[in-house]
Design goal:
Layout lengths: L4 H10 L9 H19 L30 H5 L5 E2 L2 E2 L7
Antiparallel strand pairs: 1-2
Helix pairs in contact: 1-2
């Protein structure tokens, strides 16, 4: 597959990238280089190769999903200018 200047201009327009006419040959060449690399990757035999998310196999750390109050109510309320009965106290704004 080969990308010409017209196709490169259309791709740039679809991507909403402003490309000057003088830059279109270089953009088309760059697209062709990328497509050539993809063709090389398609030649690799991956039969029987498991997909992976990382180059090193590892399991994500997990914790027990338990609902708690955070045990930090006193620390949080210590920053409040006015706290009453375990809550932030704010002035009334709606009658």
């Amino acid at each position: 597959m080969s990308i010409d200047e017209g196709t490169a201009a259309r791709v740039a327009k679809l991507a909403r990238i402003k490309v000057e006419d003088a830059e279109l040959p270089a953009l088309a060449k760059e697209f062709n280089t990328i497509l050539g690399f993809i063709e090389q990757l398609n030649e690799v035999d991956v039969e029987g190769v498991e997909p992976m998310t990382s180059v090193t196999p590892m399991r994500l750390k997990r914790r027990e999903d338990v609902v708690t109050d955070g045990s930090q109510q006193d620390k949080v309320l210590s920053n409040a200018p006015d706290a009453r009965e375990g809550f932030f106290a704010v002035p009334k704004v709606v009658e």
